[in-house]
Amino acid sequence: MSTLSTVRRVWGMPLALSGATLFGLLACLLATGIWHVLGWLALAWPLWTVARHSFRR
Amino acid sequence: MKSDRSSSQAVGGAAYKRWYWLHKWSSLACTLFLFVLCLTGLPLVFHHEIDHALGNGIEAPAMAAGTPHAPLDRVAAAALAQRPGEAIQYMIWEADEPDLVQVVIGQRADTPPDDTQTVVLDARTAQVLGAPNFNETLIFFLLKLHTDLFLGLPGKLFLGFMGLLFVVAVVSGIAVYGPLMRKLDFGTVRRHKARRIKWLDLHNLLGIATMAWVLVVGGTGVIASLADLALQAWRYDQLAAMIAPYAGKPLPKNPASLDRSMASAVAAADGMVPSFIAFPGTRFSSPHHYAVFMRGEAPLTRHLLKPMLVDAETAGLTDRRELPWYMTALLVSKPLHFGDYGGMPLKIIWGLLDLITLVVLGSGLYLWWVRHRAARPATAARNVAVEVAP
């Protein structure tokens, strides 16, 4: 397994979830209307991910 | 001990060990206080709803939209009639309660905040709606625990330092996450292995999935803990420069009309709206000025303030400046810490992320305890069997 693919496998999801979190925080802070909805959805993604993996049987 | 050694040898060398050491000790040092911060912070996210449920909230009665506001001088007189002979310190308009005005009254202009009384009035009729004893509410108790442990400035700085340790713990936790996960897929929870392994996986998953939020809330919390120092710096820096020409002048004997003073500030404020007035002699003003703090109305600028100094004898504008960077940083960090800027869904998200953080703290403590116990010779033999193989 190459180093690059290991890095991608280990850090891909954490970085994507962090990006979504920062987008959500800023969308709610800097804009209104539809951006709030997009912000909520972006912030809900890490929550959903945590729930899905934690409660999987 | 053996399982400790084998796991750290399996995942990395000296760098990993150093990060692991940092993660362990920075976490242990702050965990107790982080529990307090998370447990008090959770209800504080919903302070508005809790205050209303407990009957401590005050709402403006329904009236036709656009009903004009009463003159400020009338509002001030009505508020002072509740506490004759005392002094108004602040008059405050909250962004999401446009028809309410809060008037903070103290025995003197410089009475400390904890000894003041807030009177809430209808901004349209100047009618007193209530004088809540905020200092006796549950929310006040939680807020004091959350911000300074009832210890004033030393408590704030101490919690700020704990916040800093927490940020170090998160960053070092991210550093050890990589080596630990090299052979595992994201989100793997080895629930059929030993309980310690399962909780290690959950600790890693919950921690890494929420790291951005935790760093933002932790970082802005550290900034908020420096609020008193930033305010003090502003007073000695910008405010001192703004009021230097008035040095030594006494409190005005016949204060000018509040309405005329406000008109002077609004006329020069480029469409901004008032957030609060600091009266002469308070911490946010000089003995000779009304300091009118204006805010914007856009999503971001509604959190930002611009002080306009109005001569309290002539009602004429004497100076206005942009706040320095450290005050702006403080003002922007507040909503990002409280999570109160994106409606109820954002508050619920904040609450859930807070709960996840509690689980990360608890599982971290548990993992430390299990290893600590295993490191003692008497129990080491029993734990040899517990390996960290994926």
From TrEMBL, chain B:
Record-annotated membrane-spanning stretches: 25-46, 157-181, 202-227, 348-369
Protein name: PepSY domain-containing protein
Keyword terms of this UniProt record: Membrane, Transmembrane, Transmembrane helix
Provenance organism: Chitiniphilus eburneus
Keyword Transmembrane: yes
This protein's record includes keyword Transmembrane: yes
Biological classification of the source: Bacteria, Pseudomonadati, Pseudomonadota, Betaproteobacteria, Neisseriales
Pfam families linked: PepSY_TM (PF03929)
